[in-house]
Specification:
The complex is a heterodimer. Chain A is about 30% helix and about 25% strand. By secondary structure, chain A is an alpha/beta fold. Chain A has two domains: about 230 residues, 3-Layer(aba) Sandwich (Rossmann fold); about 240 residues, Rossmann fold. In chain A, strand 9 and strand 10 form a beta hairpin. Chain A is globular. Chain B is about 75% helix and about 0% strand. A two-stranded antiparallel ribbon of chain B has the order 1-2. In chain B, helix 3 packs antiparallel against helix 10, helix 4 runs parallel beside helix 6 and helix 5 runs antiparallel to helix 10. The longest helix of chain B is centred in the C-terminal third of the chain and has 37 residues. Chain B starts with 8 loop residues before the first helix and ends with a helix. The chains are: A alpha/beta, B mainly alpha. Chains A and B meet through strand 1, strand 2, helix 10, helix 11 and strand 18 of A and helix 8, helix 9 and helix 13 of B.
């Protein structure tokens, strides 16, 4: 689209924001024009979300100014921001489950002041929904809606408040490809009304599909601007700063089966089966990737294998013995390691030190404990070993792990789980939230580990990751495995189709 | 700009916490002045009453003993994230169990004393075990159940001292027959009974348990992150039962100390709310066993000073008010401390990365 030169809606100048241990924004200038979709592209930790949170009034910058139509403004709260016409849709929705769509949209808005006329508000919501193709029933309650519909409610909420600048923070991460298309259509309509849409993402193809202009952030600075015609390779280069290292994967001859699930049924947290009749076989030294949109039973499957959830049906064997009735600890002792999705809430204890976290698995057996007595020297030695072998950067072993960066937390967790060369490693989103370098390290560790004989079950939402390290890829959809293919014999498009439940042939 | 920190960190911690205590006294002074009392004189009298003479110090330590034991019990439960606010009832249950032995059995001292201690601990443990079972198997919130059980225990004392244990020579005063001399705790110095030794041993054991055993590691993990504890295969239910019982046993010991060490009988109102003050003690001590001992002495001094100034026409409630203010302001100072630490971390980051210069 061609754009006549106009004044920017918003101009950010010299924005600096620091957090303990991190400079999130190191002097960023950015102008946002009406009628454009501006993509902010950058790795995790590049400072995109921080910058947008400043524009949305959530954080106040340490330095720098924000200009609306040339006027210098201080945004003290999200309320200030929305009154200036800036609305942000966060990755984690801020909706009240038990209220209706219309009620959620009105919640916290200045109008109506006293009397709620829900009927006319609902009509207004319906008009907006039709106008932008964001179909959702204003009378439905949030808990009844799918994730995609909830996102539409968040967008409608901002449109209802007449946002001129709409910020979407990683909006596609939770959507199916079809929902992404629908979102893009809505974004284009919004853009055509002289509003601006800020699209935060680290997915190149999406950014190229939707953006009018791309601004690339790296390490808290703007490192480049580009048009959507730029090649993915150039964009990736800008984003990462150097060539993306391709992890070398050696395809080993398949070994003996070490883990076998047959017809596994597992209940989810809310009761109904989250895993339905899953059968899979994992061989020594192989990496089996599990693709799928989040929430299709991946977590429940891994938890059932790890022993954190008891299956409702089916069998589970490990090294040819039945383990269905063994506890988490028994399975760990036999060589079943697990890197859970929730790094800091489950895999590590945030308030504990590096040393204390290093022994979470074996705190009650030699050499860490003899009899009832906990041996701190042995614990420190183990922590030291992990820190050195897996390059965990920490000021000392006495630091609480919540103060470590995500990459260091993950290396500590990874190191603890694999130090004893497990027979099977279950890993769920092991690179989520990590920067490029940390991600590469984790990939290399996975590959080295499998080369040493460990069988790995890897759940990831990144197809690139799965294609880069897996020997075989299985796809999960609605609790079932809908296809297992050797990585060399499957295309990205086929996997994408399977993920949405449309099985080919 | 504040620039580089001029003080070492521990000094900041002490200064901020001490400041919170001072602020509590200052706010208390405003209330005293507003109700027509001379705050300076009242505080001086309290100080003299709490620590001004050997007798005063003795009385303060006697009152500190039950605060230490209940405070340790509460601190143990809180460390595991169990909100036991039933130490008062567990203290009373321990006192009742010990009284039963003292009043009904005639045993030699060497049998009687260990019996009292064991039975008292068992009484407190049993009282705490009820909410633990309800929590583990039925999912009843322990905050409600431990609180409610306090009142049942207190009324049970009434039932006993007006009924079968009533002192026939006391007309209808609410206390039991006196304990036989074999059931009196030996004293160490003046009227300070061996409960003090029990409390110090308990602190030693608790500190050792939490820091130097794998069970302690388990308790701390469960308290810090339940999902992580499950992930590590810790048996959470078993620990809820054990830790609640241990917590109650410590409170039960406090009850034994009161009946066998101080009043030598059981009566209505054997505790002026030690089990509730214990919650403040544990929290102000940040659940550290040795700090509990120290804070218990300070709070006992406050309590004792409060009793003494009643004779000068100042309500003893001022002591409770100051306790509450201390808790409030210490909690508020935690927030301040976090901000100080955060700012320090920030300035170090900025210095290291030289941003915006």
């Amino acid at each position: 689209m061609s754009r006549t030169v106009s004044d920017p809606l918003v101009r950010l100048q010299g924005i600096v924001k620091t957090f303990p241990g991190v400079v999130a924004n190191a002097g960023i200038d950015l102008a946002i024009f009406p009628g454009e979709v501006l993509a902010l592209l950058g790795e995790n930790g590049a400072g995109k979300s921080t910058l947008m949170s400043i524009l949305a009034g959530l954080y106040r910058p340490d330095e720098g100014t924000i200009l609306f139509g040339g006027e210098r403004v201080e945004l003290r709260s999200p309320r200030d921001a929305i009154h200036r016409g800036v609305g942000m849709v966060h990755q984690h929705f801020r909706l009240v489950d038990s209220l209706t769509v219309a009620e959620n949209i009105l919640l916290g808005w200045r109008e109506p002041r006293f009397l709620l006329d829900l009927r006319s508000s609902a009509a207004h919501v319906r008009r907006l929904a039709d106008q932008y193709g964001l179909e959702v029933d204003p009378a439905a309650r949030i808990w009844q809606l799918s994730v995609g519909e909830r996102q539409r409610v968040e967008i409608l909420k901002m449109l209802y408040r007449n946002a001129r600048v709409l910020i979407l923070d990683e909006p596609t991460a939770i959507l199916t490809p079809q929902e992404v298309e629908q979102l893009f259509r809505a974004v284009r309509r919004i853009r055509n009304e002289e509003r601006a849409v800020l699209f935060i993402s680290h997915k190149l193809d999406e950014v190229r599909a939707i953006a009018d202009r791309i601004v690339v952030l790296r390490a808290g600075r703007v490192v480049g601007q580009s048009s959507p015609q730029a090649s993915p390779r150039d964009l990736a280069q800008m984003m990462v700063g150097h060539d993306i290292p391709v992890a070398p994967k050696r395809h080993l001859p398949p070994g003996a089966p070490v883990l076998e699930a047959r017809g596994l049924d597992v209940h989810g947290d809310r009761g109904p089966l989250a895993v339905r009749g899953v059968s899979l076989q994992l061989r020594r030294g192989e990496i089996l990737g599990i693709a799928g949109v989040a929430g299709n039973g991946q977590r429940e499957l891994l938890e059932a294998i790890a022993g954190l959830r008891f299956p409702a049906g089916g069998s589970l064997s490990f090294n040819a013995t039945d383990i269905a009735s063994l506890t988490v600890r028994d399975r760990w002792v036999r060589g079943l390691a697990y890197i859970p999705e929730d790094r800091l809430g489950q895999g590590l204890v945030g308030a504990f030190t590096v040393t204390e976290n290093a022994v979470l698995r074996d705190y009650d057996r030699p050499p860490i404990s003899r009899g009832a007595i906990f041996n701190w020297t042995a614990a420190r030695e183990k922590a030291e070993t992990i820190v050195n072998a897996f390059h965990v950067h920490s000021a000392s072993l006495q630091v609480s792990v919540r103060h470590l960066s995500g990459g260091n937390q993950q290396r500590l967790l990874f190191g603890r789980e694999v130090l004893t060369a497990p027979v099977v490693l279950l890993a769920m989103h092991p690179t989520r939230g990590l920067d490029v370098e940390a991600t590469t390290t984790v990939h290399r560790l996975l590959i080295d580990l499998s080369a040493a004989g460990t069988a790995i079950l890897l759940v990831s939402e990144s197809l690139d990751e799965l294609l880069a390290v897996s020997d075989r890829i299985a796809v999960m959809h609605r609790g079932r495995i809908v296809g297992v293919h050797p990585t060399t014999e499957v295309s990205r498009a086929e996997i994408g189709l399977l993920m949405t439940g449309s099985a080919p042939s | 700009m504040a620039g580089a920190a001029p003080f070492p960190e521990w000094l900041e911690v002490v200064a901020i916490r001490g400041g919170a205590g001072m602020a509590a006294l200052a706010v208390g002074a405003i209330f005293l002045a507003a109700t027509g009392h001379d705050p300076w004189r009242a505080y001086r009298e309290m100080m003299i009453g709490a620590l001004g003479s050997p007798f005063a110090i003795e009385q303060t330590i006697i009152k500190a003993i039950p605060l230490m034991l209940t405070g340790l019990g509460v601190a143990l439960a809180f460390t595991m994230g169990l909100w036991n606010i039933g130490a008062e009832g567990q203290l009373v249950a321990g006192a009742l169990a010990a009284s039963w032995l003292a009043l009904t059995a005639s045993l030699p001292t060497l049998v009687m004393l260990p019996g009292l201690i064991l039975l008292g601990a068992a009484g407190g443990a049993a009282w705490a075990f009820i909410p633990a079972v309800l929590k583990t198997f039925v999912g009843v919130n322990e905050i409600i159940s431990t609180l409610m059980l306090n009142y049942i225990a207190l009324l049970w004392v009434d039932y006993m001292v007006f009924g079968s244990w009533a002192d026939p020579t006391a007309f209808s005063f609410p206390y039991s027959r006196p304990f036989p001399p074999q059931a009196h705790f030996p004293v160490l110095l003046g009227d300070i009974h061996i409960g003090l030794v029990l409390a110090l041993i308990a602190a030693l054991l608790l500190a050792g348990l939490l820091q130097r055993t794998h069970w302690g590691y388990e308790i701390r993990t469960i308290g810090a992150s339940l999902p992580a504890a499950r992930y590590a295969g810790m048996r959470v239910r078993r620990n809820v039962l054990l830790v609640m019982a241990a917590s109650g046993a410590l409170a039960g010991l406090a009850g034994v100390g009161e009946v066998s060490g101080v009043i030598h009988r059981i009566q209505q109102g054997i505790s002026p709310g030690y089990g509730f003050t214990a919650i403040i003690v544990a929290w102000v001590a940040r659940l550290n066993p040795w700090a509990v001992i120290l804070v218990a002495v300070l709070f006992a001094a406050l309590l004792n000073g409060g009793f003494v100034i009643q004779t000068a026409g100042v309500p003893a409630a001022i002591a409770y008010m100051i306790q509450a203010l201390v808790l409030f302001l210490v909690l508020a100072s935690e927030h301040l401390l976090r901000r100080v630490r955060r700012r320090r971390a920030l300035s170090q980051t900025r210095a290291a990365l030289q941003v915006g210069r």
